[in-house]
């Protein structure tokens, strides 16, 4: 990556370069070597949801001591490291290489997005109570939006009911795919629901409220597996909210402003996901290359890499990774130059391209490993499962493709006018014949 | 499927039609409704490998009473139902719809291939001891070929050592991805190993011996997960063979004849896999269609099926399923007309096409279900994992593609001669100008 | 092809087998060797549209003497050879190998469809005047439907005006892509236009009338090129109809019955196109295989076929050709068993699959030939251009995909009911727990 | 494009910005409107190769007066405009939108590469005689490398014989696909041939000599069409060299240094091709968007853009164009930072990605136009033909893919070492358990 010229790491700020080098070292020499130990320290059976492997807390201590902490928080936040989205994007790519890196550096979803929301929209009291321990890595959090009974890729469909009653909100409804809610340290949910179903604007019917995970009426029903992975201890959970009561001051930004909050939340987070997917793909390509050149693995008299389509798969992967990285960094740069709203088109492009690219590269790497590639002896299958969820997370491909297409079509009147003018000039030239 | 004309079910034998109709009814009305119960009856923790859900045995009783038993065994076997490969292929497609159907009908891999081997090459004593209980559904079996330390897609690389010592063979080596070996009922392994490493023909160095699962020195080390699924109770296991001793009469067909056995074994089995993959794809398409027309799931003012690419995904899936089915049935027909060896090309084509098609259709169906499609609330994600293994099972895509390409090139001399003759005729015509 | 088992040529009627063998011999030994002579005999400049290369008439004489004449006309026509659609489909595949074969055997579009229309719907007088010389190969014809100013993939948009005036119809309008209209022998147009714009049914507004090519008011404006090919002498022409008058008896079937006619016309013709596309693809694959094994063409120390992806391209082409052929023959068989209307779904599948497959195979063959593959030294580039038009001819891919998808969705209520019943059975089983 | 952030035009040099704005205006308002006039001014029949449409010379005059002349020549050349490769790349993209723009600005292949060779390696006399009139736009030139009888994608196969005889070189051989050789203004060929077949290094056997187009013994045999386009007046020609004699001083750089010359020549030229392909794709996307929103083109009650996959095609095109542009500009930037040799990998990536992307976008645009898209009423079909040649020009995809894959594998030892070190660290951690 350091060799890409359009985004030349050597030209970025010295602060970034220092953090980037440290991150690289930390990921490659601390996180990746700790992955097997983490797996062994995982609890068995129900304990999978109760025990946090100690090595993770050790990595957190080390990361923090190195200054690799909360790097995701950009310039606009007092608490932040002051990195641009491009700079943090490059760091996120690096952390995408190891499943242990993001949390070790307190940069893992969904906490990052939740911390951004609290930092941006939280009241001083909300910040004190929730943002502080989150920034400290003491607690974790979840974002509860998706519901099983409606097509929640259109968020206006969301049904969880938020009713004002005296000085409390009362929540009733069902959520699922709430990532992180299985973690014993998860103390806070940001819950999106319908607080004003009759509002004439579909985009003013929703609110987001803060719900302590231990609030009466909250029941985590079950974790949902991704392919066969339960992703313990975080998990992706189904949660029932039954007459859950929270004080009115737990609202974020104000009633009816749920859409405003999620719009503000999603831009940079999508970039992080995309860049981590690129990191996954780079690691997968490394695994593939090491495998196909393994002198012990020869078939029909040749090294695997000398057969048919393997070299071509490597070359295509190289192309696809690099062109996708540019697309994502471009979106990051666009956010840096303005804001996430102005970069909607670029973010959509990145959001569609990166997970699909990662899946293609991972699938080739799996294939090069034989059946072993599907097991957990290599990080490929789990990465595949993770990358597959990204085609839904923060909106399915279809929604982004459709928005992007319509966005692009906004140029069409201008183009049509240009075409008309060109035709007129053409006719004028022909008229002289 | 009944509407496809090239292979019109109504024109096949009345016996087949009866069995086909019964299979369809059994799969749709017995197996599929029992799937959730099966999951609930599964053991927890270590018991996953010890308990066989009772509903499975009930289904076996019912299938057997309906005559839906051992249908895979073709005409050439006394014990068989006398179905052709095309006929059994169509039944296998039907069984591919439910994970419970193949075993319920005693038609599940790897038992089917093992029973074929025993029926074809077994001595009377081997048949009595192993084939009989297998045909009876009393025991299960595994086929131990793949090894972790070599590229075993080229079977000449296999290293497990088979040494003759007195009136015994002594086996030492390591196998993995031994499907079915986790099952408490698995009583027999067919083990491929190197018995004559110095034989000048690479294809005469291997033998296959029968090893009781409880033989001293056999250790099932662990099950290997497929995308997080352990596929308990069968599992895909790593097994150590350490000084495992079996009597000389446990050899199949004779020393050095391992390749002969696996060649004979693989043809029809590949057809079964492919047809079951088609059944999976058909069921996935049904799920997709039901989902996208669900009146409760509307986004942005439209039903899902009215959006963008969904209709196109359905149409393409229909095309891909149908053309793949023809390819597989064609290979089955080719085997029926001669033998598996003569149908090598057709089998390779089917073997490459069917799993890749199924994966594409399943992936679209998953996408149409949102994140839920990746969970076990629907049969899609697990089917995807299963279909993904088929791109390795019985040889990876790459090996089949390469064999097929070289096979096709055998025609080239004849074509070149035709081209030369055409050019000569062309020159003769021009000469008259 | 003779080796495909699902459609085993040896099992078809002896009459077919005789015609098939003769066709094969005629195409390979007469048509293909005559291609270069045909090119040389083509006129230069404006003469391209005036001269029919003599070798074509010689080939017609030979084909007719062999009984290879009007084979497209099926059993239902007195004039026909009595072949089924499957049988003629196989013959059409063979004729697709040479650009000279279809017309030599009086089996080329659009004459075939026009002859079918006249045979099926023509009055005795229409048959005598137009069908007879067409069947005789004395004249040629065109079908004038597509218009430049509307989206004529939806035929209800067609605007050419047909006005009844006394005992005449008066035609005014513009058509383009009228294939065959450039041919000096083209004597007849079947013209679709709007005769009753106010009819409440959009499908009753259109009529088809017979227009002699030399009728006053008809002007062939220009041929339209396809990727630079003008396809002289037939051409794909733009035609102005200005106050063109024909007698009332020139109507086909009756006023307002245009849709009825085109529905009846298109089914078998689409099969012919598809099968010829398969023939093109087979010939392209032959060219590719001969090229990559050419001993004079070695790069970097290896034969081309020993490099990377070439073998894979050959293997994939083999798979794609075969599975597409089955799809098309299946549609033909479906027509044979009922009629084109009942085979709508199968025809759509074939119509989408075959041209796209042919383009993929042709593109690989071109690539294997280097730049030469794009020239006319090989038949590949012209075939590519021809196959590319098939993605529009008789409806663009998009229309077929959309129809097919909606057609498939008609099953959804039945599937949903099945799912509900399965869920109920499942619940009943769980209730016993 | 101006909105892409990674390469923000507003941050590039003011000189570039001025030239870029002028180029854009010139292309959109002068070149594109002149395209139809150019076509009408083309000669007919043989005159296609004799007449240069006057409008082209008028455009050249205008471009030169605007300072839009020889912009391709970079900083390192005294004659150059001093633009970086990134800067000129962006201008090349703009010129790729109109077939008239590159030559109007004296920036068309193969002259650009030839001028670079002469500027870099030419003697003062060679420069005076050939470079000067080329820079002046008075003559044109060709580069004669490809041969019909060998696989010239491996340039060591080239066979044209260059024999030293007294103070002359004598050339004998056959070339084809010599672009530009049909142009009546083409005065010079740079001919690559074998001057020392016995040299032990395969890469020292070739030389390049300057051959006046009117040298005795040179015969332009025929133009080769691309699909059906002859690309007159430039053409892609087959040329016989029969005892062609040139003085010894016509050698470029020295005997046996042919490879050195072509290596130096190809880097930037490939970038130009790629960027022009991107310009083609952008224009195609504009055509597609205007077409599918044309209010006159509605089918089945909807605008085309409201149907199924059209929006998705637009969105995917947007993604593919943008990510490819970044890849190409990255290669340009890499050249700017060092030299073409150091950017070999990046150039290969761009060279594979850009033409394939352009073909995909063009094909979708063609499809959206119906059959008209294949004609010359729109610039799409001709652009497609042009872009298709780029998959061969300067090396076929396969060669670049293979080089890129092997290039990437050079990293593998380092990665393997890293993996080993990580495993060791992992084992050390586990040992503490």
Mean pLDDT across the residues of chain A is 94
Biggest interface, and residues per chain?
A-D, 67 and 67 residues
Shape of chain A: globular
Number of domains of chain A: 3
Taking the sheet with the most strands of chain A, its summary is:
4 strands, antiparallel
* CATH fold field value of the largest domain in chain A: Butyryl-CoA Dehydrogenase, subunit A, domain 3
- Uncertain parts of chain A: none
Annotation field: number of helices of chain A: 12
Radius of gyration computed on alpha carbons of chain A = 24 Å
Report on the architecture of this protein.
The structure is a homotetramer of 433-residue chains. By secondary structure, chain A is of the alpha+beta class. Chain A has 3 domains: 127 residues, Butyryl-Coa Dehydrogenase, subunit A, domain 1, CATH 1.10.540.10; 113 residues, Butyryl-CoA Dehydrogenase, subunit A, domain 2; 153 residues, Up-down Bundle (Butyryl-CoA Dehydrogenase, subunit A, domain 3). Chain A has 12 helices and 9 strands. The first copy, chain A, has a 4-stranded antiparallel sheet, with no helix packed on it. In chain A, strands 1-4-5 form a 3-stranded mixed sheet. In chain A, strand 2 and strand 3 form a beta hairpin. In chain A, 56% of the residues are buried. The model of chain A has no long low-confidence stretch (mean pLDDT 94).
